[in-house]
Amino acid sequence: MAHQRASIKNILCPTDFSEFSDRAMRRATNLAKWFTCPVTALHVIPFVPPSIAYPGPLGSAMPVMPMDMLSERREDVDAELAKAVAMYRKGGVTVRPEVAIGQPWREIESRANELPADLVVLGTHGRSGWDRFLMGSTTEKLIRRLSSPVLTIGPADVAPPSVLFRRILCALDLTAASQTTLDLAFSFAEENLAEVTMLHVLDGDRPDWFPAEPHLATHADFQRAAREGAIEELYRLSKDAPELCKTDNLVVEGTAWREIVRIAEQIEADLIVVGAQGRGGIRESFLGSTAAQTLRHAPCPVLLARPQRGTASAAAPAKVA
Questions:
Q1: What domain range is 191 assigned to?
Q2: Is residue 87 part of a domain?
């Protein structure tokens, strides 16, 4: 199947005015230049009505704020966001400031669906800190629920946001959903003439894509056959790479997320692209999934791909040539 360039027509970038939100916004506006599209800069003022603010004996993490104070806060946020947006627009990018009031993850998800957003750029830290991410923060909820690709910008992203992605590591599980993941990686690569390393990790279990072979009596026989099949499949997929985009194929054994992080560090990757669907669905298995662990430990930004609407299920096996 020929490479299908990702269609990025709207980018959504939530901001809480923290350092990491600023870095995410700069990444978002640079991507907007490449894809010639606008960026919606969304700030959510956390709020729930007093009538539902204390649903139980432990209360609620959402503040109860009088309406007059809320109006004053809205004015301050409008002014702060307008000032920030003016700075982001210096490169000629269309940046649209928006303010919402409510539960941050709900408001961000709602706006992403309304646009609809083809890419959401998130800072994984913020004023609430990394621990909140681990325990069920706005970021985690969004990664579970958003249907669009998500680019996460964490504290390990030390490169200036203006620097292009020159080395991209694309982790593929070789199921049918891998085509979407690879298309997204190639789309980012061709904007930068980047080098793409296509990686498959054999984790010891029988891969979903690997056919049943009763003659493979021993584990060593299976591993050898699986490695050969994975190499052949990566080679087939690499033929669809855009012109002027250099590719490299790699098959390793180990725990998937650890190997992804290790290889990313080894090749000094500027971006990791990984499928976010998982075997059991990211909603059900996010906290222990390869995508989640990769995001937490990655030495660079992580782009989480999503199966496109109307495509085959992630569980459907890819054909091994």
A1: 167-305
A2: yes
